[in-house]
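Case study 2.
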Amino acid sequence: MGFSEKEYHLPFFDEYGYVRKRCPRCGEYFWTVNPDQRLCGESTTYGCADYTFINNPPTSRKYTLSEMRESFLSFFERKGHERIKPYLLVARWRDDLYFTNASIIDFQPYVTEGIIPPPANPLVIVQPCVRFPDIESVGSTFGRHLTIFEMGGHHAFNYPEKQVYWKDETIRFHHEFVTKVLGIKDEEVVYKEGIWSGGGNAGPDVESIIRGLEVATLVFMKYKVVDGKFIELPIRTVDTGYGIERFTWLSQGCISGFEAIYGDLLEKIKAMAGIEVPDEKLLADISRVSGRVAISKTSSRMENWRKVAQRVGVDAQELSRMIDPLVDVYAVADHTKCLTFLLAEGVVPSNVREGYLTRLLIRRTCRLLRNLSIENRLFDIVEMQISFWSRDFPHLKEMHGEVMDLLSIEKEKYDETLSRGRSLVQRMIREHKSKGVSEIPLEDLVNLYDSHGLTPEVVGEIAEGEGIKIRIPENFYGYVAERHIAAPKKERSPVTEGIRDIKDEFSDLPETRKIYYEDAYMKEFKAKVLRVSGNRVVLDKTAFYPEGGGQPADQGLLEFSRVQSKVEDVQKVGGVIVHFLEGAVPEEGDEVRGIIDWKRRISLMRSHTATHIIMGAARRILGEHVWQAGAQKGVKQSRIDFSHPKRLSFEEIRKIESLANKIVMENRPVETVWMPREEAERKYGFRIYQGGVVPGRKIRIVKVKDWDVEACGGTHCRSTGEIGVIKIIRTERIQDGVERIVFSVGESAVNAIQESEKKISQIADILNVPPEKLEHTVNNIVSELKSLRKEKEKLTNCLAAYLAEKWLSSSEEINGVKLVSKIISVKEADVDLLIKVSAEIVKREEKAVSALICVGNNAQLVVNVGKEALKLGIDARKIAREMGLKLGGGGSGRPNFAQGGGTRIEGVEEAIEKAKEVILSLRR
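Prediction:
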């Protein structure tokens, strides 16, 4: 969808003498005060301009990033905007994306769609943002692309009954800022027309171009995008994005944006890497044309360097040799800042959600550091980043310990991945070779990265040694990031699908009065029947809690006309509560009496309250990186999932349980209150969304005094003491980066403790010792078992040596190779012993080939080839494969060792004969 000229033709342009033109190269329309200007003036791959501000800044003075940020905020404060604190980098208030990638994300969808009022109107904010799709371009474009950046936004929300300001005023504000505050001349500022879409909204935009660099985008958001169609919104939003780093670079006119952003920190990284910085004049020439660089699936870094080399008059290979190390240093500076900020927000690197993208960033950083031969300096650089940015972002210093711990654990995991990855890749390569495939496909590279954390560079090194090709797309990391950048749509459960099917049946009914919120302790109530449909009953009010927020629905009885029917399920359909009955149903208009299954309800209330307490305890024991990742409450057992980089130790579990029970014993009050969403966020922060995004203008806040505050729709105890006791039953690792605590409360917790004591008593009886001596006795048994295993190992080795010597004496010589072949019953020796015997045979005789079969319910074979036999062309894999076929199966392995087998045990003699045939064929 395009927009007509009238969307952009504003009084400002006429007043300042701007004329509208169309760029013959990129085809876009732009506004300029220079009637002779042909091209739009933006430095892109279309080649419409170069950066003319390098060593020639257009501003009246140079600004640091901090100074530029403050200048922007102060200017708009003077223009009547209220300054707003930045939101989190992790978009905890959104369920459709993981990271904040623009300042408007802070206000979508609740403010932009009129669900809640904005925190101020108009407002100004400088929002740290994260973007991953162009990650490969970071560094190569000298500062145009960054994974982490600060977006300055002045926003106005125009309601039908209240207009704040719109297009003309927006451009006037921008123009005054760049000309009056920054001192840039009018004729330097070009305005380019565009269309913007993001976060479910869209509208026309105007981009500000100064000396080749796009520094701001002024969006006039007036549409909601639904299935690709633009639907006009009642609220028109001014959504501006000022690149604070780009304005800083523009003001300094330095070689790249990285010098402007990082200053001395960048110089320290250069010194660490010991890179040779190219000639200053050549660098300036390269920088001026760097806007033409764009790395993508179809355009590699080398292809871009060729274009640049042609412009600056040097050889492309020489340019790459000189520039690549500097580009890697730029990317390291950017990536380490980004991962520092993400880890400081408690993101746990993993293979899912925001953790996946953080892991991607860390592993790409490790590769860059390896390129620079300073892989061991990762922690030093992150330390420097924390020190450098803590002046403006104090929370980095507060989270210093957790940042370094999370990074250390992830680096250990990466090193482990590299150590075990070689065999995995080699196995995959062998499979490809056997199928005649000469190049590793892209999907395999993606799978190796997604499932096993192996970077394509590591795979490439292994593949090169194995003689198979690999083609790594230049935009590989951007490609995999794009696949994980947005949160997947939640799969609908059968219950949810069922609710959708019946939604229309009750859409005409008034919202059900929720007595369970008014008084969670009401056990019985009276109500009027509004609608009956099959076994589904809707009342005018109810104390039955519907399933939601990880809490199962209440159960109980509905009494009417001297009949009692069981309420087996309760679901919320829009604003209506639907009761599913087993048995007779009442008539519409009847008065009924609801009876809650109180034992079930109070158990669930205790479990739900305990969930809040355990989360608070986990965060205090493990650290601020702990965020809830899911929960399910139950009558006997409940579970809570949360982010954590490693398995919980016994000591950590004990501390969490003890601290949680301390809060229970202190009998702290539990308060619930309904609050406007914006007020709750402002007062308590985004920690309130532990259980996920909560819809609605007003949200229900549950507060455990001085312990935990969350947005939560469940039922809870009035005080923590009502829980009785919390017992952690077990912990599980449900996925990388997520731990699960399974726990019981109240009577169920007591039962669990008693069951544990019963098992201890039974074990003590079996071992014929009192419970207090159980630990000592078990330790003795374990020690004895270890000694027996060692003794068994010695005896097995002796037996293997004896059998090897014995069987070698009866070997059969075939063309200079000594074949040792035996068929052994599983009663005589298992396959593990045969592996030892086989290895001992080829150790004693390097021209030997050992082909051994162990027969039981099936047949298992072991083939070993000595060093000298290998030189003669004997391949264990080929022998095992052919023998395996005779056994109705197969075989595989390495040239010197292979295993296989099958279920056709009557074919064992044929398999031995086949081994002889294969040796004969290989020796020919």
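The chain has a mean pLDDT of 89.
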